[in-house]
Design goal:
The complex is a heterodimer of chains A (183) and B (190).
Chain A: H1 3-12, H2 22-58, H3 63-86, H4 98-114, H5 116-119, H6 124-137, H7 142-179
Chain B: H1 3-10, H2 20-43, H3 49-66, H4 76-99, H5 106-110, H6 117-120, H7 124-136, H8 140-150, H9 155-162, H10 166-183
Classes of the chains: A mainly alpha (183), B mainly alpha (190).
C-alpha cells in the first residue's frame, strides 16, 4: 500500500452522516437557551436541599452547627457562581487559527491558576462560619478543635500551592513551545 | 485569488456580515461539501460512536453560529476546518483532563517500536482502526496537521489553518510519514 492509497482509504471511510439541517441547528440553539435557565434553577434548588438535608443528618439536635453548615454551603455556591462569571472559557473565535486558539486556551488555564491565591481568602468566611457553629455548641473543646482544623487547613493550602506552582510552570513551558511553531 | 474565494466573497453582502439567507446558503454548502470530512475529523478526536455524534453536533452548532460573521476573507474550507478543529480541541482538552490521559507529540511517537509484520499487513478496516488510534494519541496541534494531511490538503493550506509556519508543517509531515512507514506497509510512490 502506498501513502496516497492510505490517504485515499482514510477519505473513503464511511461514517454515519450527521443528521443535521439548518432547521435542526436553529431548533437546538433555541432549546439550549430555554433549557439552560430552567436547568440552572433546578440544579440550584436541588443543591440547597442537599446541603440542608446533609446538615440535618450530620448535626442532629445541634442547631448552630447545622445553621453554619447551611450558611457555608450557600456562601460557597455564591462564590462558585461569581467565579464562573469571571472566568468564562474562551469560545472558538471566528477566523482564529488553531495555534492562536490553543494558546488562548492555555493562557486561560494559566490565568485561572495564577489567581489561585487570590481566591483563598474568600474561603476564610466558610472556615469562620463552621468554627463559630462549633464554638456555640461545645465551647470547652473548641480551642483544641480550632488549632487542629487550622493546622489541617494550612497543610492542605500549602500542598495545593505547590501543585499549582508545578502546573503553572508546565503550562508556561507548553505555551512557549506551542508558540515557537509560529516561526 | 482562487475561484473558491471569489465565489464566497460574492456570497457576502459588501464588507459587512452575510445576510441571514447567505448564512443559510453557506451552512447548506457546509452540509453538502464537508459533512463526511467533518465526520472523519470527529473520528480523529473521538472513537466512541455516540460521543462522536455529540461532538459532530457541537461542531455544527458552532459553525452555524460562526457563519454569521463569515466575511469571506479566507476560503470557506479554511473557516470550516478552523472552527471544527477549535471546537474539537475544546472537547479533547476536557476529555483528556477528565480521563487523565496524556497525549504525545509526533517526535515522541517516533521513538515507539515498529509493529509486527502481520499487523502492518492487516486488512483495510484494521489499518484504518490503527491509524485512528495513532491519530487520537497525538497532541492537538500535531493531530490537526495530520488530520488535514489525511484530508488531502497541501502543506501551505495546512499552515494557514493551523497557524504554524510552512517549515514546521513540513517537519511534522515528514515525521508523520516516517511513522506511517514504521507502523504500516508503505511502498514508495511510483
Amino acid at each position: 500500500m502506498t501513502q496516497s492509497e492510505l490517504i485515499e482509504r482514510w477519505q473513503q471511510q464511511n461514517f454515519d452522516a450527521p443528521r443535521i439541517s439548518k432547521e435542526y441547528v436553529a431548533h437546538l440553539l433555541k432549546r439550549f437557551d430555554d433549557e439552560d435557565k430552567r436547568v440552572k434553577m433546578r440544579v440550584l434548588a436541588v443543591r440547597l436541599i442537599a446541603v440542608a438535608a446533609l446538615s440535618l443528618l450530620l448535626f442532629k439536635e445541634r442547631f448552630w452547627s447545622a445553621a453554619s453548615f447551611v450558611a457555608s454551603g450557600i456562601y460557597i455556591r455564591l462564590m462558585v457562581m461569581r467565579a464562573k462569571q469571571i472566568y468564562k472559557t474562551p469560545e472558538p473565535s471566528e477566523n482564529v487559527d488553531a495555534l492562536t486558539y490553543y494558546r488562548q486556551r492555555l493562557e486561560f488555564v494559566l490565568y485561572v491558576r495564577r489567581r489561585f491565591w487570590r481566591r483563598v481568602p474568600y474561603f476564610l468566611p466558610v472556615f469562620g462560619l463552621l468554627m463559630a457553629g462549633f464554638a456555640m455548641e461545645s465551647p470547652d473543646t473548641f480551642p483544641t478543635l480550632l488549632i487542629t482544623q487550622a493546622s489541617v487547613l494550612s497543610v492542605v493550602i500549602v500542598l495545593l500551592g505547590i501543585e499549582n506552582r508545578h502546573y503553572t510552570k508546565q503550562v508556561t513551558r507548553e505555551i512557549e513551545a506551542v508558540w515557537s511553531l509560529r516561526d | 485569488m482562487n475561484a473558491d474565494l471569489i465565489q464566497e466573497k460574492t456570497a457576502v453582502e459588501g464588507k459587512g456580515r452575510p445576510v441571514e439567507s447567505n448564512r443559510e446558503a453557506l451552512f447548506e454548502r457546509v452540509l453538502t461539501e464537508y459533512s463526511q470530512a467533518l465526520a472523519r475529523l470527529a473520528s480523529g478526536y473521538e472513537s466512541v460512536a455516540h460521543r462522536r455524534q455529540d461532538l459532530l453536533q457541537d461542531i455544527h452548532l458552532k459553525l452555524w453560529q460562526s457563519l454569521a460573521s463569515f466575511d469571506g476573507r479566507c476560503s470557506l474550507r479554511t473557516w470550516v476546518y478552523r472552527i471544527a478543529h477549535n471546537t474539537a480541541v475544546t472537547y479533547v482538552t476536557k476529555e483528556t483532563r477528565l480521563s487523565r490521559r496524556s497525549l504525545v507529540g509526533l517526535e515522541e511517537l517516533d521513538s515507539m517500536p515498529a509493529v509486527a509484520d502481520d499487523e502492518r499487513n492487516a486488512d483495510a478496516q484494521r489499518v484504518m482502526e490503527r491509524l485512528g488510534v495513532l491519530v487520537r494519541t497525538l497532541k492537538p496541534i500535531d493531530r490537526q496537521v495530520v488530520l488535514l494531511q489525511l484530508e488531502g490538503l497541501q502543506p501551505a493550506d495546512i499552515a494557514t489553518i493551523v497557524g504554524i509556519s510552512p517549515g514546521n508543517v513540513s517537519i511534522k509531515l515528514h515525521r508523520f510519514n516516517d511513522l506511517l512507514k514504521k507502523h504500516f506497509t508503505i511502498e514508495k510512490q511510483p
